[in-house]
C-alpha cells in the first residue's frame, strides 16, 4: 500500500475512480442528507490550496482509497474518505487512514484531530474520545421546519463500545461503557 498527495489537476484526472470509492462509502450508510460528488473536493482543493489535503492510497498501481482533511488553525479536520472495501481488510486501509490523519496532525503542528461522527468504535481504537456535538438546523420557511423535525427524531442512536488503547492512570477506573451517539 502506497500513498501520495494529489493536486487539483490530479483529483480531476482521477475523478471517476475517486467517485466510485466515495459512492462505496456513502452506500454503507443507512441515512444521509446529501450525496457528495468528488468535483466538490476539486473545488475545495482549488479554493483552499495547501489547507485542504487530498491523499490517495494505491495498491499495485490502482487507487483503492482516498482521504481528505482540512487544516483549520490548530486543528486537523478529517473530511471525507473513499474506500475499496474488497481490499480494506487485507491492507487495513481505513485503519491506515486514521493513522495517517494522526501523523499529518503531528507533521502540521495541529493540537487536535477531529475525526467526525461515523465509525466511532474503530476511531476510539486510535485514542479518539467522543465529544458532544450540537447543531442547529433552520429552514427559512416555517412549514419546512415542521416537516424536517420528525425525520431528525427517527435517526436511531448508534450503540458502540468505547475502546481505550492507552494505559489508564492509577486510580482511574477502566471503562467498558457502551456509548450511544445519534448520527445525522
Give structural notes:
This protein is α+β, with helices and mostly antiparallel strands. It has 7 helices and 7 strands; from the N terminus they run βαααβββααβααββ. Residues about 180-184 have low confidence and may be disordered.
What portion of the residues fall into strands of 2 or more residues?
A: 25-35%
SSE ordering:
EHHHEEEHHEHHEE
Q: N- to C-terminal separation?
A: 32 Å
Rg from alpha-carbon coordinates: 18 Å
> Helical amount among residues, as a percent range?
25-40%
User: What is the count of β-strands?
Assistant: 7
Structural class by helix and strand composition: alpha+beta
For the largest beta-sheet, the strand count, sense and barrel status come to: 5 strands, mixed
Low-confidence stretches: 180-184
Indicate the mean pLDDT: 82
Overall geometry comes to globular
In what order do the strands lie side by side in the largest sheet?
1-2-3-4-5
- How many helices does DSSP assign? 7
